[in-house]
Specification:
Elements (H helix, E strand, L loop, with lengths): L8 E3 L1 E2 L20 E4 L35 E5 L8 E10 L5 E4 L3 E6 L2 E3 L4 E2 L7 E4 L3 E10 L1 H4 L3 E2 L3 E5 L7 E4 L5 E2 L8 E2 L9
Parallel strand pairs: 1-10, 9-16
Antiparallel strand pairs: 2-11, 3-4, 4-5, 5-11, 6-10, 7-8, 7-13, 11-16, 12-15, 13-14
């Protein structure tokens, strides 16, 4: 996965033309991904870069200018799993279904959910990876990676969520997505899921 430094500016990948009336409603129809959602999930508070609360998203800092992407502008998807050496990775993507260009910078907030409740460990940010400013024109897509140890190989405790709450950087409202990936680790820091920052480079 190619990542650019934060001082650069990249544009997302074309997906589809947005609806004329603004953000699309929740849908499970998406040709290349497992599940989709719109901004109707559990609320989670942005913490301006802190890892303190579940599902919190990182700060946009001062990288570039432009209107940041709001939760209501975006639709989220969970891609098919891939990975090797005992780990699995899901590409979590967001598509700009608004009628205006917006930007993403940094890590999404993310939390597993079961019903209306957040469950399991909060995914930790992989801060070894550089953040980039991604400009999303209407219909464009950006990606973030969600990685964790393969439950069948790690042998630790697991949970089986039924949803994923995705919060864009600096937003407090999450986008609810169905989780169809089965069990995830929930036994300790060594098995904790990790997140990569948003990128314009396709994943998976």
């Amino acid at each position: 996965m190619g990542l650019l430094t934060a001082c650069g500016s990249t544009t997302g990948t074309d997906v589809a033309s947005p609806a004329d009336d603004g953000p699309a409603s929740s849908s499970s129809q998406e040709p290349s991904d497992a599940s989709a959602g719109s901004g109707n999930g559990p609320s989670s508070t942005s913490d301006s870069g802190s890892d303190a609360s579940k599902g919190s998203s990182s700060s946009g800092d001062a990288a570039g200018t432009g209107t940041r992407c709001r939760s209501s502008d975006l639709k989220a998807y969970v891609g098919d799993p891939h990975g090797a050496a005992g780990s699995v990775e899901y590409a979590i993507s967001v598509v700009n279904f608004s009628d205006h260009t917006c930007t993403l910078y940094g890590f999404p907030g993310m939390a597993f959910t079961k019903g209306a409740d957040e469950v399991g460990r909060t995914p930790e940010r992989d801060t070894s990876l550089a953040k980039e400013r991604v400009t999303l024109a209407p219909g464009k897509r950006a990606w973030a990676g969600l990685r964790f140890a393969h439950p069948e190989m790690s042998g630790g405790r697991t949970i089986t969520p039924d949803g994923l709450a995705v919060t864009p950087p600096d937003e407090t409202s999450s986008i609810g997505v169905d989780w169809l990936g089965g069990p995830v680790p929930n036994s300790g820091a060594v098995d904790a899921p990790t997140l990569t920052p948003f990128t314009a480079e396709p994943m998976g």
